[in-house]
Amino acid sequence: MTDCYDEFNLEDYADVEPLPIVTGLKDELCQIMYSEEYKQLMGLMRAFLSSNELTPRAMRLTARVIAVAPAFYTAWNYRFNIVVAIAKDRLDQEFQWLDEVTLNNPKNYQIWSYRQALVENLGQDLTLRGDLPIMDMMLDDDTKNYHVWSYRKWAVLHFKDFTHELSFVDKLIDRDVYNNSAWNHRMFYMKNVSPDDRTIDEEITYTKNKIELVPQNISSWNYLRGLYDHFKPETGHKGELLKFAGGFIDALDLNATADSAESLPEIESSYALEFLASEYATEGQLQRAKNAYQCLALKYDPIRGSFWNYKITTLEA
Amino acid sequence: MVNVSRGNWPMDQGQRKLVKFLERHLGLLPVTQEGNDVNKLAIVFYSLESLSALDELVCKKYHPYKSWLLKHYTTWVDADGRELGGFVGSLNLVIPGVNSLSLANTLFALVCLLTLCESYEEFENTVAPLRKPIIKFIKCCQLKSNGAFVSVLNYQSSEPSPVDHHDLRFCYIAVSILYLLGDRSISDFQRHINVGKLMEYIMAQRCDVGGFGEFGEPHAGYTSCALSALKLLGQLDQLPNTYKEETIFWLLSRQTSGEGCEFLQEGKNENYDALDHGGFQGRENKFADTCYVFWCLNSLQCLTPEWTQFTRTDLARSFLQSRTQNSVVGGFSKNDEDDPDLYHTCLAIAGLRLTEGKFNGELCIPLALSDKFRL
């Protein structure tokens, strides 16, 4: 008998009675003009699923079917059962095969839950190191792929290995400082490694530098505010943050009430102004908060004008 | 900077093209669609739902296909003799001895039945024999470990499939099916699934800045699933007020702007385009995308009846009509560059109808349908 990872060859199935697919029904919608190859493959696949044959040739068939129809969830499930039955000591090869499918189907999410199933159920001897090349490659190609980031966080938690994460997100933030997924991963890392005060202060400095690079960046602002909320919740620390934010709007006088967009100066970041407004509101400096919201509505973020005006009414209540 | 036209959508010529685009997808499909064969009911759902939202007389025209649709209903009897029922995405997945029931395709099929049934009574009579087996299937899709749902079971048993994902999409789909089958109150739902565990899972998907997502990164699609599920369950008041406010602000902030300080990103942020003015993005610092108009606006309508006052729905509409609608072949694309596709067309129509007050967002069906079937 030939091997699980050999090429698919139709001759190996000569003895199998296929279960032909359904075609040419009356009153059918979305009738697909199936190719002969598809009809043949699906006919075989249906027969194999029905008999639940757990053999190398069944495994080769799943590879071929998944290549043609990667969304065929039952084929993935079937393959998993075959691996458990006859190939669980050959995970290296299974991952090699899976990596190839992954590279060919970057937006498919089934590949990641399949990977997770292999690691969770059969991967007692695995480490995060084995997952790194494919994750790095996929994120290098599509730096905000949600499925890959989710899998990465799952894997890091599963293996309890955070050693590669900080340098990895450093690299991605250097490449694109607007990458929200990378900033989010950075926060995930920080929350999980229980950093000391010095590390947090270094993080704050790092983030401030990134904000100075491009002040109109929601991701770095959210991260900075998140650092304070999580690691420095005592209000005494907020003073330095207020000063930092103030630096991006220094041409603007928040003690004056603006009446038109034309009278307002240019500022560097609406996020700095929004942060100041919310802090002033919390501290009870209501007039300054209202002025700030008014400026956002008039000039700095007019698309959300009605929301900023609503914020003003909540301060007046 | 950006031309804001308040067009009378749907315009006659545009609508004709749209209808043609949709009807083409229900006809003979080229060999390139083979890969979608296993989820064929998704194609049927996006097309029929869209046509129905365009006020086309879907029910009359496509009623003859109802029996074909019902052929996709199949059952599986497990080792304990329990009969589970549900729809499969394609007749090619009806295989003797194999459990290939699919949660997503079950919802797609039920909504298709709504578009095809002529009366409330017809729908009731059609689903009555399916109700109990489907509910058993849904129950089996809930994970005991964390309360979330998977979308398929193991092909040889009634256990959750070991290789399927569990997430907020499938939680929403499970709740939505139960609602369509008659569950209304929390005690109705509680009879069929573990609502407490599901609530725990949904709440655990909340993110620091508002919204819902996996491992702390909020995503407008997941947010819409979470909020719609909570609304159908009647559990939105379980969300703390501060969290609701943060989520409203997070959602409003997803409307992309070509004005004010946002324009400072031009030429710096490679995922920013000032011409996307008024569209919505699914996450921070991403391009606007047709489908997120619906996911964001639907999330907002779940949270506050005042949503139309807080957001520029006029700009969202012109983003769809003038930027992502294809005037040559009909249909909508993801953005101003791609070819139109069925998914984005369906979501664009849903988004437009939602802003007109003619769409039931949490059930994702035209209001005319939810009224007709007392949903």
Automatic annotation (TrEMBL), chain A:
Its EC number is 2.5.1.58, 2.5.1.59. The keyword Transferase applies. Coiled coil: none annotated. SUPFAM superfamilies: Protein prenylyltransferase. Pfam families: PPTA (PF01239). Its cofactor is Mg(2+). InterPro entries: Prenyl_trans_a. This is Protein farnesyltransferase/geranylgeranyltransferase type-1 subunit alpha. GO terms for biological process: peptide pheromone maturation. Keywords: Magnesium, Prenyltransferase, Repeat, Transferase. GO terms for molecular function: CAAX-protein geranylgeranyltransferase activity; protein farnesyltransferase activity. Belongs to the protein prenyltransferase subunit alpha family. GO terms for cellular component: CAAX-protein geranylgeranyltransferase complex; protein farnesyltransferase complex. It comes from Huiozyma naganishii (strain ATCC MYA-139 / BCRC 22969 / CBS 8797 / KCTC 17520 / NBRC 10181 / NCYC 3082 / Yp74L-3). Transmembrane segments: none annotated.
TrEMBL record, chain B:
Pfam families: Prenyltrans (PF00432). It comes from the Eukaryota. One of its GO terms (cellular component) is CAAX-protein geranylgeranyltransferase complex. InterPro entries: PGGT1B-like, Prenyltrans, Terpenoid_cyclase/PrenylTrfase. Its cofactor is Zn(2+). Belongs to the protein prenyltransferase subunit beta family. This is Prenyltransferase alpha-alpha toroid domain-containing protein. It comes from Huiozyma naganishii (strain ATCC MYA-139 / BCRC 22969 / CBS 8797 / KCTC 17520 / NBRC 10181 / NCYC 3082 / Yp74L-3). The gene is KNAG0I00610.
